[in-house]
Amino acid sequence: MKAMVLAAGRGERMRPLTDHTPKPLLPVGEGPLVAHHLAALAAAGYREVVMNCAWLGEQLRATLGDGREWGVSITYSPEPWPALDTGGGIFQALPLLGPAPFLLVNGDIWCDLALARLALPRGMLGHLVLVPNPAHNPGGDFGLADGRVVPDADSRYTYSGLAILAPELFDGCSPGRFPLAPLLRRAAGEGRLSGLLHDGFWTDVGTPERLYALRARLGAA
Questions:
Q1: How confident is the model over 158-217, as pLDDT tens digits?
Q2: Per-residue pLDDT for 221 more than 70?
């Protein structure tokens, strides 16, 4: 199975830190944020990684190269600016990902989940990792019932930015800029989206405050 790391965004909420540095390259721990993902992917047995890039993408390519430092092989999927949004970026990269299901990783999260645990159940278009709602998303995104992700439920959780997706999720899509969330909601409504709840450590590293909190946590570890 291949993996895709989403790394094309501008990081507006992270400004001014992202004015001259792409968000995935912001330092966390002993290296850039995205290095955590590459190391976790290699530890889980992933070797082929597709990474989209747009904002300051040349810095990503110059810093990460072909990925061999982290035990993976990176193929880049360059996007125009403004970037293609999550759905459009994945759709453009499908020829690089191939016909099999692939692991999707948002480049601006931090999670201690062992990625080798993730698999796509038969008949599903996607398998999402959900987490308890953080303060910045109190209403959550999806419900979870008997291993199925449902669009509406009394108890809702937040999509973590980790998923296994089947290329068929994008059937009927056209090239261009579009979000991923409507495709996930459609699959959930069809009963073809599974998921699990991760109650370990996870954070969306979307603002300077959350970046500094993560650095403090890792520094104290």
A1: 999 999 999 999 999 999 999 999 999 999 999 999 999 999 999 999 899 999 999 998
A2: no
pLDDT tens-digit series, residues 89-117? 999 999 999 999 999 999 999 999 999 98
- Cβ contact 179:86 at 8 Å: yes
H or E segment and range at residue 204: strand 202-204
CA dist 59 and 207 (Å) reads 20
List the structure tokens of 80. 């125009």
Instruction: Please tell me the distance from the alpha carbon of residue 110 to that of residue 122, in angstroms, as a whole number.
Output: 28
Distance CA 214, CA 217 (A): 5
For residues 46 and 1, the answer to whether their CB atoms sit within 8 Å is yes
Entry field: residues in the chain: 221
Residue 159 host element (H or E): strand 156-165
User: Looking at the 3D structure of the chain, how many domains does it have?
Assistant: 1
So what's the pLDDT on residue 219?
A: 78
Residue span of the structural domain in which 153 resides: 3-220
The tens digit of pLDDT for each residue in 31-70 reads 899 999 999 999 999 999 999 999 989 999 999 999 999 9
* Residue 87 contacts residue 59 (beta carbons within 8 Å): no
Is the Cβ–Cβ distance between 40 and 28 less than 8 Å?
no
**CATH number of the domain that 157 lies in?**
3.90.550.10
How far apart (Å, rounded) are the C-alpha atoms in residues 6 and 87?
A: 10
Alpha helices in 48-168 (DSSP H): 57-64, 85-97
